[in-house]
Write a structure and sequence with these properties.
- InterPro entries: LytR-like, LytTR_DNA-bd_dom.
- This protein is of the alpha+beta class and about 290 residues long.
- It has two domains: about 150 residues, no CATH class; about 130 residues, LytTr DNA-binding domain (OB fold (Dihydrolipoamide Acetyltransferase, E2P), Beta Barrel), CATH 2.40.50.1020.
- Helices cover about 45% and strands about 20% of the residues.
- The strands form four sheets. Strands 6-5-4-8-7 form a five-stranded antiparallel β-sheet, with helices on one face.
- The longest helix is centred in the middle third of the chain and has 33 residues.
- The chain is elongated, with a radius of gyration of 26 Å.
- It starts with a helix and ends with a strand.
């Protein structure tokens, strides 16, 4: 069980629009459930503004979701890195949301005059929220994990799909000329010798072969700028921080976070962004 909780798991994309949408959707579901089904004794509670007050808990739930899945992550970015994210962390983070929700619901209930603002009430409301979300939180993570494992099964680069052979290119057409932003620092290399290019801040590291040996060359340039200088068809973007030569990929592994590209001569793995996973599946076949 512990080994399962340590398995890699994708960290959801952090965008304001997506967070707002999910928060409003979750709040609507909570408000609808409270008004229609009236669980946890609310059926026997009578108040002239009962439905509006119950709907207000949906608003509180939406605020709680937004805080946990956007605001708190913005404030604590070092805690949320996909390289270290796992199934267990995803489940724990989802469950911690109920503590925030219980506290905010108690504050709201106190302001509405329907419950006291006490520690015991906060614990009770947190328990109610926990019981409502425990099974869905764990079950959805497990189902999504199994789905992602199937989606990102290892691929075989050695069994590439048949494609028409390209016309023979001259040595000049095979040459890549990568020019840094200052217009002076230049790297010339044969396109087949390029493995991948990694971007970091305002610099790019070019991983390539020189006389058969792995060489790293640093250029001050954005990745987009270097990408615009490359016309070789086998070289493509696979991540916001990586350009890769798909012809040089040795193996393609996969887990719930997506594909990883392996290259001969270096232990560094190149991640494939989920938006580019289709490109990898089109290039290689399932193992």
């Amino acid at each position: 069980m512990l080994s399962f909780l340590r398995q890699p798991y994708p960290l959801s994309e952090l965008t304001l629009s997506k967070s707002v949408f999910h928060s409003l959707l979750f709040g609507f579901i909570i408000a609808f459930s409270l008004i229609v089904f009236q669980p946890f004794g609310s059926y026997n509670w009578h108040h002239p503004s009962k439905n509006p007050i119950l709907a207000g808990y949906g608003v509180v739930a939406a605020v709680s979701v937004f805080l946990n899945f956007y605001a708190f992550r913005k404030m604590l970015p070092r805690l949320f890195t996909e390289a270290n994210w796992s199934v267990g962390k995803e489940i724990i983070w989802n469950l911690l949301h109920f503590g925030t929700g219980g506290f905010l619901c108690t504050v709201y209930g106190s302001l509405m005059g329907v419950m006291p603002f006490t520690l015991s009430q906060i614990l009770y409301m947190s328990m109610v929220a926990f019981l409502m979300g425990l099974v869905p939180a764990v079950l959805l993570v497990m189902i999504n994990y199994v789905y992602l494992l199937q989606k990102y099964r290892p691929l075989e680069p050695t069994e590439k799909k048949e494609t028409p052979a390209p016309a023979a290119l001259s040595t000049q057409e095979e040459e890549l000329v990568l020019v840094a932003e200052n217009g002076k620092d230049t790297l010339r290399l044969s396109a087949p010798n390029l493995l991948f290019i990694e971007a970091s801040d305002n610099y790019c590291t070019v991983f390539h072969l020189d006389s058969g040996k792995l060489t790293k060359t640093l250029l001050r340039s954005s990745l987009s700028r270097l990408e615009s200088q490359i016309t070789w068809p086998g070289i493509s973007r696979c991540h916001r921080s990586y350009l890769v030569n798909l012809e040089r990929v040795q193996t393609v592994s996969g887990n719930a976070q997506g594909y990883k590209l392996h290259f001969d001569g270096t232990e560094q793995l190149v991640p494939v962004a989920r938006s580019y996973s289709g490109l990898v599946r089109e290039t290689f076949v399932a193992a």
